[in-house]
Amino acid sequence: MPLVIRKPLEPPSIAHAQAAPPLTMEQEATYNTVLNHFILSVYRIPNVRTNAGLTETERHWLSYECIHRYLRAVQWNDPMSAIERIEATLRWRREFGVDDRLTPAHVESEAALGYQFIYGFGHHGQPILHLFPNIQHTQAPDRQIDFLFFMMERAISLMPPGVETICVQVDCQNRTNIPSMNTIRTAIDIFQRHYPERLGNALIINVPLLLNAFLKLVLPFVEPQTRQEIQVNSESIVDTKTASCSGSEIEAKGEETFEYVHKEYWPALLRMTDERRGHWIAQWHAFGGEIGSKESEYRMADAPSNESPTPCT
């Protein structure tokens, strides 16, 4: 009889993340241009009327790796474009309420349905975000978007040291009412604008004809870096890269089966991610608490030793 798991897995302590190549002299200079823009004591976020200085949370968010992601998104060609994109994200995070409005209480009505959860890790240690729209019964598209990016932030908190991306697996099986086109467009737009270089891969399977036609129209307008990681109804990928999924259950390889039980999974996820966030903030302060600090250094310090990853790629 398989072991039934109803809580998120602990992240592996050491992930087999692919090391980034060393920067060229030109890239070092480009990075320093962006860094120096934000570390000025007089820096204020443009087009923000009140409290325009960076908060502690925003300073922590502006890590070495964060700046690199925005520079990679512009192919290292234009530091001012990277600066503008970072500032747009800083404004969006405030307006969207990433650090204050998106509380567990705000999204729990969505979470309780079990159509979205984080379970398992990819070969390179990426958290796997599973979505099952067929059991998404709410008619609150704004709250659905809130919940998606609440879970995105929680997935980031579960990334082992050295990991910057997530895997997303969407199973549209038995979907009678597909998400609205506007909801899908909004989610894709937020992801590519404000979470650049965060997608390891996305598998969307059992896509109904109408949604498939819409995606064919929309995906050509998605940034190439994001678009190349999205695969729709690819049977060869499904056969080799996904678990057997049905509703809110996943048959993992071996003798384990995951079952979403909200009263067990939800508090465990919140506790695990809150503890990790608190630990990273404390380590960031211990390493100087500066903009441009390396996550790979302060996240590795005293990192807990946990389980091996569950493959998704």
UniProtKB/TrEMBL annotation:
The UniProt entry, under SMART domains, shows: SEC14
Please give the superkingdom of this protein's source: Eukaryota
Q: Which residues form the CRAL-TRIO domain?
A: 106-278
Q: From the Swiss-Prot or TrEMBL record, what is one GO molecular function term?
A: phosphatidylinositol transfer activity
Q: List, alphabetically, the InterPro entries matched.
A: CRAL-TRIO_dom, CRAL-TRIO_dom_sf, CRAL/TRIO_N_dom_sf, PI_Transfer_CRAL-TRIO
Protein name as catalogued: CRAL TRIO domain-containing protein
Organism annotation: Cylindrobasidium torrendii FP15055 ss-10
